[in-house]
Structures are given as C-alpha cells and as structure tokens.
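Long-time lurker. I teach an intro course on protein structure, and each term I like to show students one example going from raw sequence to a predicted 3D structure in token notation. This year I'd like something fresh instead of my usual example. Would anyone be willing to generate the tokens for the chain below so I can use it in lecture? Attribution to the forum is fine with me.
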Amino acid sequence: MPGIAIYGAGAVGCVIGGGMARAGHDVVLIDPWREHVEAMKTVGLQLTLEGEGTFSVPVKAIHPAELAPEHSFDIIFIAVKSQDTVSAVESMLPHLADGGYLVSAQNGINEDIIAPLIGAERTVGCVITFAAALPEAGQAVRTTPPGIPALIVGEIDGPPTPRLEQLKELLDNVGPTRLTDNLPGERWAKLINNAMMNPIAGITGLGSRAIRLNQAARTVAIKIGAEGAYVAHALGVPVEPVLGGIEPAALVAEAEGRPTTVVERLVTEAQRRGEGSPSLLQDIGKGRKTEVEHLNGLIVRRGEEAGIPTPINKAIVGLVNEVEAGRLKPSLDNLQLL
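-- Reply from a regular --
Happy to contribute to a lecture. Here you go:
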C-alpha cells in the first residue's frame, strides 16, 4: 500500500484525502491552518458528500512544521493555490520516496511549474471536476452529486502508464476517475471552465449554477471562454469539451453570434447541478488572495505570446483585483463595468 500525502488540506485536498482514507489507505493530510489540523486530529475529518451523507473519517493530520526527515511518501498530492506551488513542491521534495511522484491536483496549469523543479518523469496531472467547500475547521463538503465525473489523471505527455492505473484505482474511492492521453487538452478545458465561472462568481457573488442561469453573467462567461479557446487553438492545444460537453468551437461561434446550442446546454447543466460556490468566491469571502492571475491572467499572458487579444479576460482580472482589495463589493452591477 503506497504512502500518500496531501499537501494542502483545503476543500479539494480533504475530499481527495478523506475519500482514500475512508477506503483504508495510508493518507497524511498536511496543512498550515493549525485549528483545522487540530480538529482533524481530535475528532477526525467531518466529510459531507452531496447525496450520500456525512462521515467522520479518522485521518492523520499534521502541520508542515511537524514534517520530520523520516516522513517519506510514494505519492504526494499538491492541492494548494497556484501561487503557492513552488513553495509547496520545495517543502515536499525531500519527503518524496525514490520512484515516487507528485500529483498536481490544482487549478491552472501547474505541471509547467512542477516538472522543471523535479522532472517530468516525477510529475502527474490531476484535473478536478468536482466542486467542494471547507465551511469550518475539520469539515469538508463535496457539493457535486454522486456519479458525476470527479477526476481526470494523465501523464504530462503520452498515453496512460501503469502508475496511472494504480492512481485511478486509488482515486475511484473519491469519485469516478478516468485516464487521459491528452492532459494539455484537459487542463485547458478546465482552465477555460474556471476562467468562465470563478471570476464572475467573485465579482457578482453568484454561485456556479446561478451564473449559468443568469443571462448577463452567462453572456460574459461565454465571451471569456471564447477568448480562451482562441488562445488554445493558436497554441496548438487540442482542447477537450468544456462545461459538461460543450466543444470549444461552439463557444467561439456563440460569442460571434452564430447559432449554437451553448445556452441550452449551460441551462441544462445548471439544472442537474447543485449550487456550488466557486473557489475564487470562497477565497474572497475569507479575505484570501485569489488565483485569478493563474486563471484568466494565464489566458491573457498566453494570448500575448500567441498574438491573440483577450480584452474580456484582461478586464475581469482587473475587476477581481479590485474586489479582492476591497475597493469593489461583489454585485451583479459589476458586470456592467465589462
């Protein structure tokens, strides 16, 4: 049985770690929030799974300062915010066993950061397709109903390998997991998903379901996604379908005013979803730095490299920064500033 560490026991990290721990795997949750760590040590992780119930999961939880030289792990999940990737990898690299690997279970495209630090052969990507929240210390909630695809894992380049088969078996305890031979395309699909939903949630206060149902928010989201699709195409990335099966070319067509089924599909998807709170909105509510520079900001930077203008993404980065700084309050009226 492999030794597993989750560095970053936030909402995503706790759902992943709690799912594997419930199945009897050796998992250590590592997080700097001392109250959270102490709660898990004392009474276990209180894990609520939409449609299934609440479970008290005994887990091993430690603060990073408690990491000792003898701590060694075969699989280390990095589940921190993108801006904390380098420090997380540097902290955990001494604890990676020979033959072990790191799994980026993050938003953004952090394999491009991790692989140069530790080697591509020790880097695996994990695209998160479930929604989660961390309402209080020691508590995590998966807000996505059961049965909906939860995770996608892939090598940086090339087809699935035996270690990915093992990883899939572990992660099936968290939710339905599939392997991919197109990690860049999956990453860009998730990047576009996040870019469409997260910043709009941050500047309006709407949840992911409400964004799909609100015409003004949905229109801005489609324009954001179309810019992302333009950039990915220019970079030669074969982007996978986004937001429940929408082809990137359809986002472009909808943004250009050509007839598509994009709106119908977004509404249908909203009706089958719970009302999740995107992570960026959660960060703003807790006064934390957001990942907008690693989401929409990344689209802007890659667009500049490819010579593709991204005015909506650039504008919404600015608005999120204003909300983050407290100079704007989340409101639907902020959409008019775009």
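Some talking points for your students: DSSP finds 13 helices and twelve strands in the chain. The CA atoms of residues 280 and 286 lie 10 Å apart.
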